[in-house]
Amino acid sequence: MPESPEVQALVEELGTRLTGRAVSDVDVLEFRVTKTRARPPSSLVGERVTAAKRHGKLVEFEFEGSQHLVVSLGRHGWARWRDGDGNGNAVGYDPAVTGAADADAGPAPALVSVEFDDGSALEFTDAGGWVSLGFWVVDDPAEVPAVAKLGPDPADPEFSRADFDRALGGRRKQVKAVLQEQESLAGIGNAYSDEILHAAKISPVVHAAALTGAELDRLFDATVGTITSAIDARRGIPIDQLKATKVAAMQAHGRAGETCPVCGDTIRDFSFASTTAQYCPTCQTGGAELALREA
């Protein structure tokens, strides 16, 4: 799933490519993608892009006519760029890299294609087993429920310790779940929550209410530091290399069976919600192993 550092890099790239260009055509091949049926993406034909922005894990395009296109990439959504000469250049997630599709299956088909006045096109796909890609055309991004409910973003320069403390709020909920809860903290998913907790040396299954003052201090620093440094690190990386760069930078996430770079223990898997996550027993759980759901 794309998370805030990768979505930010995507938004910055698309803002550079698209600002000033007018939409010449929109082809929606999967009707379930359209979430505002009275205002389909085709209503943007003739409108000129003025900016691209990020809201948590969602992408927003502003248009001169005061309309906004909000795109949720969902679990396996991605975007690719097609130049006016017909050459396709990836600017999002390659499903072969994410593991969402067989690498031999070739590129996923476009579910939505947005063409521009210079002959170029931005194509969106969804490589998952069910369609999670979503498009909204609205007057205000806050009309999109996923945007309206977002909590404060750790990448925002205005994000404060008070914002962080309100998000955790002494809650009797596993801290990893709180980090991934978009209503509490915007933009963090499975991968970066693993990285944050590993950096803070905190168990992913401890309840937020049980954290000591020192642990909260470490968790705040790790949350802000991990997300902002990842955004800085992704900036300038060719977007088609973004996923591979993210994977290579991970210290714990996706590293099960490998050596922890901090203590030398073995990184292990554990079951979390409907997925699998990773942690270091020595660094995070006092040597205790967490449960892994049987296959």
Features:
295 residues, alpha+beta, N-terminal domain of MutM-like DNA repair proteins, Helicase, Ruva Protein, domain 3, five-stranded antiparallel sheet, four-stranded antiparallel sheet, 9 helices, class I DNA-(apurinic or apyrimidinic site) endonuclease activity, oxidized purine nucleobase lesion DNA N-glycosylase activity, multifunctional enzyme, metal-binding, kinase activity
Question: How would you describe what is shown here?
Answer:
- The strands form three sheets. Strands 1-7-8-5-6 form a five-stranded antiparallel β-sheet, with no helix packed on it. It has a four-stranded antiparallel β-sheet with strand order 2-3-4-9, covered by helices on one side. A two-stranded antiparallel ribbon has the order 10-11.
- It starts with a helix and ends in an 11-residue tail after the last helix.
- The chain has two domains: about 5-150, N-terminal domain of MutM-like DNA repair proteins, CATH 3.20.190; about 160-285, Helicase, Ruva Protein, domain 3.
- It is an alpha+beta fold and about 300 residues long.
- The chain is about 30% helix and about 20% strand.
- Radius of gyration, taken over Cα atoms and rounded to an integer in Å: 20 Å
Q: Note the overall shape.
A: elongated
Task: Supply the number of helical segments.
Answer: 9
CATH architecture of the largest domain: Alpha-Beta Barrel
Largest sheet geometry: 5 strands, antiparallel
Q: Give me the CATH fold name of the largest domain.
A: N-terminal domain of MutM-like DNA repair proteins
Element pattern in H and E: HEEEEEEHEEEHHHHHHEEH
Pfam families: Fapy_DNA_glyco, H2TH, zf-FPG_IleRS
Cofactor: Zn(2+)
EC number: 3.2.2.23, 4.2.99.18
Catalytic activity: Hydrolysis of DNA containing ring-opened 7-methylguanine residues, releasing 2,6-diamino-4-hydroxy-5-(N-methyl)formamidopyrimidine
